Amino acid sequence: MPVQIYNRQRTVKYRPELWDAVFQNALAAVGHPDDLVEVTFVSNRGIAALNRQWRGKTGPTDCLSFPAPADLPPFTGMTGRPLGEVVISLEQALAQGALHVPDSDPSDALYSEVLFLFIHSLLHLLGYDHETSPRDEELMTREQNRLFDLVSGFACTC
Predict the structure, then answer these.
(1) Residue 55's pLDDT is what?
(2) Spatial distance between the Cα atoms of 56 and 74, rounded to a whole number of angstroms
(3) Radius of gyration of the chain from Cα atoms?
(4) What is the distance between the alpha carbons of residues 158 and 138, in angstroms, rounded to a whole number?
(5) What confidence tens digit (pLDDT) does each residue in 113-150 have?
(6) Which phi and psi angles does 93 have, rounded to 5°?
(7) Can you give the residue ranges of every domain in the chain?
(8) Which of 24, 34, 47, 144 has the most Cβ atoms closer than 10 angstroms to its Cβ?
(9) What CATH architecture does domain 3-151 belong to?
């Protein structure tokens, strides 16, 4: 399956069956249905360590993206190629609630926020970068919102 999900935290309870299909829908929406993305759910402590190690920043963040090398070939038995890894702090996503999707139903806040963070990270894996210029930020924001609107219609039975 093109999305591999790993849970490396015990802080936030969630239903893993929600994520396989919705993450796969996001991959299809960006035109990469056969490519592989690994998603790892971690705690604030875990993402803070990664944030310090890879970005030199102190404290937790909500998500990090680690693109695979562009010339990395497909794994045996795969038709697509590895895009990279997305790391999401479920603890931070829960604390943020629907920060990025303020009009979402409060009972779906974690679902909405994690989906938004996955889409944000997926766009980073595909080369988008909101930190390079105001124009790039605008392009990424527009694409993020378009994809979220498209993919969030997937039924959430949270």
Answers:
(1) 94
(2) 31
(3) 15
(4) 31
(5) 999 999 999 999 998 888 788 887 899 889 999 999 88
(6) -60, -40
(7) 3-151
(8) 47
(9) 3-Layer(aba) Sandwich (3.40)
